[in-house]
Design a protein that fits this description.
The structure is a single chain. By secondary structure, the chain is an alpha/beta fold. Helices cover 42% and strands 17% of the residues. It is built from 15 helices and ten strands. Strands 1, 2, 3, 4, 5, 6, 7, 8, 9 and 10 form a ten-stranded mixed beta sheet that branches. Strand 5, helix 8 and strand 6 form a beta-alpha-beta unit. Helix 6 crosses helix 8, helix 12 crosses helix 13 and helix 13 packs across helix 15. The N and C termini lie far apart (92 Å).
Length: 373
């Protein structure tokens, strides 16, 4: 009898728990709740084609940053820097994208998306890719290409975009063709083209395999004041191209940075909070991206480097500032920051909160050209 009463009390207790508000909370969540939960922690990142470096970088981010609870990184194949920019601005589900740093100059130059410099900001610069201009023997300067047939890669490519910005800035009008690079090199050998432009990290397989008897060579790309607003100085070396560059005589050129870009969400929005969590995880776990089997290009990334012509997204500024507070940043940046504090008349030790505030002012000052004075 006692056993029967015990079982009855247990049954009554179970029914009471199930009927209570807390018991109801144990039921399976609705489809709407599941959808909200899944999307709340997912950050979509638009990358590049299946054979490119961008998609490998995005895959590394997913592998390292996913925590299975509050953050999931969803890599998406992209169709070039210009389309990636459009996707960041307008495509649902895309929060972050990898683009060439000159895409911003390109769309501003053509007035494609008014106000884009305020809507599109950056988290960090990634790595550089050099601009290669391979030319016939009779072409000795980039100015010799005026009116000449010059291949700028396929339509819509990053190289085509960079070439357009480059030649416009230098005031050089060329007859642009849109052949793939291997075809362009063959036509260059045959004298049908004066030059071929290609943006790629050196050594590029397209050029490194050329024999020494082609008569082709790289020509210099000058870093003018107009180009310095977007590009960085670089050289093509004999070590990368022993058949095209003489030992001890590197060829001056410019470099295009790849950028992790983001829409400038307002601080009180859900998307801002989601991207801010992604950024915090990225800065915190960045050392893991430097280890095998992650892409070796991560070793070229300096989180503190500024991108000319771009504004850094607020949460990325804050994350970089926290690294300074923790002493986990570059010595050069620390020296520059200390000099800024001295110039501002700030004396004595600062609290972590005060350091964070001053570092954000320091980055704002740099973004407005202060570092150049």
């Amino acid at each position: 009898m006692k056993a029967t009463l015990s079982r009855l009390f247990v049954l009554v207790a179970i029914i009471a728990i199930a009927a209570s508000p807390s018991g109801m909370a144990q039921q399976a969540p609705s489809k709407g709740a599941l959808a909200a939960q899944t999307n709340a922690g997912t950050v979509g990142i638009i990358s590049g084609g299946v054979d490119g470096t961008y998609v490998r970088i995005a895959a590394d981010l997913a592998a390292v940053l996913d925590d299975g609870q509050t953050l999931r990184v969803l890599p998406v194949l992209g169709k070039g820097s210009l389309q990636n920019l459009v996707d960041i601005l307008y495509l649902h589900g895309i929060d972050v994208g990898i683009v060439q740093s000159d895409v911003l100059a390109y769309v501003k130059q053509r007035h494609l998306y008014p106000g884009v410099e305020q809507s599109l900001q950056y988290i960090t610069k990634l790595y550089d890719e050099e601009v290669h201009v391979l030319a016939r023997k009779d072409i000795t300067r980039i100015e010799d290409l005026v009116g000449q047939p010059v291949n700028v890669d396929v339509t819509g490519s990053g190289t085509a975009m960079t070439a357009s910005v480059l030649f416009d800035a230098l005031g050089i009008a060329v007859q642009a063709t849109n052949l793939d690079q291997p075809t362009a090199v063959e036509k260059l050998k045959q004298g049908e083209l004066a030059a071929a432009v290609f943006v790629s990290g050196q050594p590029s397989r397209v050029f490194s395999s050329l024999p020494p008897d082609t008569g082709l060579h790289f020509i210099a790309v000058p870093l003018t004041n107009a180009l310095a607003a977007t590009y960085l100085p670089a050289t093509l070396t004999h070590a990368s191209y022993p058949t095209l560059v003489e030992d001890g005589a590197p060829v001056e050129t410019i470099a295009v940075g790849s950028v992790m870009a983001v829409f400038a969400w307002p601080p009180n929005s859900d998307r801002y909070g989601k991207v801010a969590r992604f950024i915090q995880a990225f800065f915190t776990k960045f050392p893991e991206l430097l280890k095998p089997p992650r892409h070796p290009k991560w070793k070229d990334v300096n989180l503190a480097v500024k991108v000319p012509g771009w504004i850094r997204f607020g949460p990325a500024q804050d994350a970089l500032g926290r690294q300074v507070v923790a002493g986990a940043t570059t010595e050069t940046l620390r020296v520059q920051f200390d000099a800024f504090l001295a110039r501002a008349g700030v004396k004595g030790p600062l609290t972590d909160a005060q350091t964070g505030v001053m570092f954000r002012k320091f980055l704002d000052w740099q973004d407005h050209g202060g570092a150049a004075h």
